[in-house]
Amino acid sequence: MPLMKAIGLHRYLPIDHSESLLDVELEIPAAQGRDLLVEVKAISVNPVDVKVRAPKERTEQSPRVLGWDAAGIVTSVGEGVTLFQPGDEVYYAGSITRPGGNSQYHLVDERIAGKKPKTLDFAEAAALPLTTITAWESLFDRLGVPHSAEQNSGRSILIIGAAGGVGSIALQLAHAAGLTVIGTASRPASSEWAKQLGAAHIINHHEPFAPQLKAIGHANVEYILCLNQTAQHWENMAEAIAPQGKICSIVETSEPLNLTLLKNKSASFAWEFMFTRSMYETADMAEQHLLLDQLADRIDAGKLRTTITHRLSPINAATLRKAHAMIETGSTIGKIVLENWE
Fold first, then answer.
1. Which regions span the lipid bilayer (predicted)?
2. What is the pTM assigned to this prediction?
């Protein structure tokens, strides 16, 4: 069987350990069913990579490959594929229940892949899938934000952790949908980045929300998207949300949330986990294919922009360890992408 380069792990170790991520060789898999075999040209790193790789008492007999953002070229397709053909350029986040994309060739279900934006190179495209799917589903599926700017006139959204990967896309999508976008940031660089991407106002998430919102003319907000420390911000969110408003978070908690704080306002709360559709192979799994194609159209029309801020090269274990360490600081802006296999 032909072999490919990949980056994997046997043990879950601190990122400064030389064996936390390893250069390995694996057999190139074969496409079957609705799978695409993709020659991976660029990969991006997300907080989920760091969470999965975090130290724990477990070992893997075969190298475990992480990575849930990739862009590349379809080289072969399974017998059930109808949406793509060899030679197509694609981008996708993949499934957390399958081997990740940190390999030269990767299998992905066609229902969760999209055609790469024509105006972007592979690295620019690889920065987008996971964060875009998360932001899109959070806004339009979980919070129920209308796509029409006319319907959103006078409505506002608070995005907590606005300068990160998901926030960088959510800002653009919310602004394009006609919402007044308020982002949170605590540093000048992250504040400026958020403003460039559509935030009308910035408040500091280390301080109480309500007084800051009042100071910019908002007694409350109709929507809140929490991308940082759900439990830490819970009481602030409950105070800031409007009656009958909606809150969505992507960050799990280790402690119970007091949902009673939302009762008198008849406010609702929803979780967003972008792997739900692929993990459970839901009936609407192909919605992720459709939204990635819609995103590509918006990118190519100049209505949205990629959120890449760091290009690292080559794609190998040493470079990927560096990217993981950057994510672990908790202060990255935009997305980190790796390109060019050695």
1. none
2. 0.95
User: Which tokens in the block code for residue 228?
Assistant: 């940082």
Rounded CA-CA distance 97/99 in Å is 7
Write the DSSP assignment of 127-170 as a string of letters: TSHHHHHHHHIIIIIIS---S-TTTTTT-EEEEETTTSHHHHHH
Consecutive H or E run containing 229: none
What is the distance between the alpha carbons of residues 199 and 334, in angstroms, rounded to a whole number? 15
Query: Which residues, 6+ apart, have CB-to-CB distance to 281 below 8 Å?
Result: none
- Rounded to the nearest 5 degrees, what angle is found at the Cα of 92, between the Cα atoms of 86 and 96? 120
Assign 3-class secondary structure to 76-109: EECCCCCCCCCCCEEEECCCCCCCCCCECEEEEE
Distant-in-sequence, close-in-space partners of 188: CB < 8 Å, separation ≥ 6: none
The model's pLDDT over 11-59, given as tens digits with 9 standing for 90+, comes to 999 999 999 999 999 999 999 999 999 999 999 999 999 999 999 999 9
Q: Which domains does the chain have, with CATH numbers?
A: 3-128+276-339 (3.90.180.10), 134-271 (3.40.50.720)
